[in-house]
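Consider today's protein:

***
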Amino acid sequence: MNRKSSPWAWLAFFVGAAYFLLPLIATFEFSLRMERGVYSFKAYQVVFGDPRFQETFLYSVTVAIFTILLGVLLVVPTAYWIRLRLPQLRPFVEFVTLLPLVIPAIVIVFGYIRMYGSNSPLPLLASTGGTNVLLVIGYAMLSLPYMYRAVDTGLRTIDVRTLTEAAQILGAGWVTIIGRIILPNVLIAVLSGAFLTFAIVIGEFTMASLLNRPAFGPYLQLVGANRAYEPAALAVISFIITWGCMSVIQVLARFAPRSPNSR
């Protein structure tokens, strides 16, 4: 077999790399030009020193943590039970988990406003706490396709039925089986879904804006509409956060358990 790579493959690689990297490099270069005539990190200093940046970023990180916890509580037991007892429902569940990719977020949030507004039987939007809860639920739904597939992939690498039967023989209940046996065995997959969820929550704009929450996404849009160099710095920061999450996923994937039949 010829192990030499095709010149066209290298050309496609460099064209693709240039397509992604050149705009990023140009954005980074522009962000360094806040002080006339010299390159400096003044724009980054202004961004990090802005109390609104700290407030919105901390808020989004907090929401992301609760979103991840809610996603794990929903997805891990569901995916486990479908694989163990209800495999015939798997096509239906996969279809449902794909719906957030099909239905626009603006449609979902307007539905929330109509269902949970001040005139509804359950007026969650009437209080700050209720709105925060609704935002976490919305983000958990947006991240559902990624979290579910990450966990489902992790469950494929272990023998769910054998582990469950062994635990039941030893007297373990369902909560113990899921929390102390299944979850540790798919922890890498759960972390992969968690980092994807984190990246989604940090950059999301529509839900946070329409629900009037002080999140990082609306802050990015506000700064981008009123300033010149700070938006470029924020774009670079957001890129680093997102790709940092992706890099962590790649590192964790190397420690994921392999199927006995994999090579």
The chain has one domain: 46-253.
